[in-house]
Write a structure and sequence with these properties.
InterPro entries: Rhodanese-like_dom, Rhodanese-like_dom_sf, STR17/STR18/HARC1-like. This is Rhodanese domain-containing protein. With 131 residues, this protein is of the alpha/beta class. It has one domain: Oxidized Rhodanese, domain 1. The protein is 29% helix and 23% strand. The protein has 5 helices and 9 strands; from the N terminus they run βαβαββββαβαβαβ. It is globular, with a radius of gyration of 16 Å.
Amino acid sequence: MDLKKSSGAEVITIDVHEAKNLLSQGYRYLDVRTEEEFKNGHVENALNIAYMFNTPEGRVKNPKFMDQVLSVFGKEDHLIVGCQSGVRSVYATTDLLEAEFKHVYNMGGGYIAWVGNGFDVTKPNPVEIKL
């Protein structure tokens, strides 16, 4: 007998191909990486709200994450949550589902898998060096 209890909806992880398809159908991409990671390149039209911050003691959870998400998205919005490799996004997706967001998917493999499949990204403009 399984005594394990579920805390609401389960995280559904989709691969980058399905994520790309859903984005073309109106889903929004929530990038939960740090601002520094996001600035180095991200999925086109992504919105960045860091789930964790880098500190001298290591990474700590963003205490304002849910408030920041709720200031931009509604609980009925269709979201794909991604990070660098797919770990932080599982935690962020869990928090969103527990906050009663209805249409949220975790993108397995994260930004690394997105780039690895050759999908379009937005990167910073290189700095011009004048000689």
